[in-house]
Amino acid sequence: MKNKKKTNKQIYTTFVLMIVIGCFVGFILGFGGAFISDMYGGDIVGGLHQIFKSVIPVIYVLLMVVCYGYSFYQYFKAKRMVENWDGMDEEMLDRAEDILGLSMISNNIMQVSNFFFFSAMTYISEIAIPNIEHIAKNRITMLAVVVGIFILNMVIITVIQKLTIDLTKKINPEKNGNIFDKDFTKDWLASCDEAQKLMIYEAGYKAFQATQMTCIVMWILALIGMLLFDIGIMPSVCVFVIWLTMTISYSIACRNVEKRKSHTNEIG
Amino acid sequence: MPLHNHLKEYRAKLGVNQQEMGRLVGASRQTISQIERGDYSPSVMLALKIAKVCHATVEDIFVYEEDVTDEK
Questions:
Q1: Residues in A touching B35 (Cβ below 8 Å)
Q2: For A174, which residue in chain B has the nearest alpha carbon?
Q3: CA-based nearest distance A173→chain B, Å
Q4: Residue range A203-256, pLDDT digits in tens
Q5: Radius of gyration of chain B (CA)
Q6: ipTM
Q7: Of A82, A91, A213, B57, which residue is most buried, by most CB within 10 angstroms?
Q8: Spatial distance between the Cα atoms of B63 and A211, rounded to a whole number of angstroms
Q9: CB pairs < 8 Å spanning A and B
Q10: Which residues in chain B are closer than 8 Å to A194, comparing Cβ atoms?
Q11: pLDDT tens, residue by residue, A64-96
């Protein structure tokens, strides 16, 4: 009985906290919206565009510096540890792999962000030029710069991926796969043993759960945007496509694994 | 429920490092490391392979201990 009361207390506390946090976030968004509206003469959407235009290039540059800096720093740290390994201290190799993992995470964040910022920079390069007569010439220049930065980033990201994968293969010689091969993920997974596959599957499920929650939040934001800021139906369509793809892939994969297990049991 | 093991001791008797042990049993160095730390419980197949390589039984290497406090 004592345990049940404690559990209910935790539940009610969490519930109240969620309500309070929801109210606080709503207040911030409402206050922020009113503030931006006052600053830009009642045009919240236009105001957000102006803020977006100023902030995006700065964030892009900062992100590149931080992500690449961190990736290279961790990579070289791991490389030094592997080169100095005496062949006996196994914990050193575990630490090196852990550090290499951090380098990969930073690089992966930059990879995904690069796609977003390509879109964002293309968007602001269009709205940054008000004079319609100069749009054709300046827009091409702006877009060329944006495309150039995107390609340069993809090259750097690929270089970091190659370096980290090669070092991983040096630590774990049984690993197979070339990142330039279209079957890289398939080959890599095939060279993983039971424990590593389990790790990948567990991480995949965690990602699925996190994406599920994110889709719900994004759907709410897309709906609010559509109703209050006239952003159109496209954001809702994008959320729908991602959510549906994820749900169907997961369901079919579960079914296939279940069938495979049943088939194996029948043979056994 | 924890699955303790004496893999590190048996590996030391064999005089192999984790990478070599992994190669002998068809697993990665990472997995051997995780098993030794108690972070991963191997499958029956892998446990049998490890026992064979160490010239011991699975019960010699892996010890299953029930958590006594749970029963209380």
A1: 195
A2: B28
A3: 9
A4: 999 999 999 999 999 999 999 889 888 888 999 999 999 999 999 999 999 999
A5: 13
A6: 0.81
A7: A82
A8: 39
A9: 44
A10: 27, 31, 42-43, 46
A11: 999 999 999 999 999 999 999 887 788 899 999
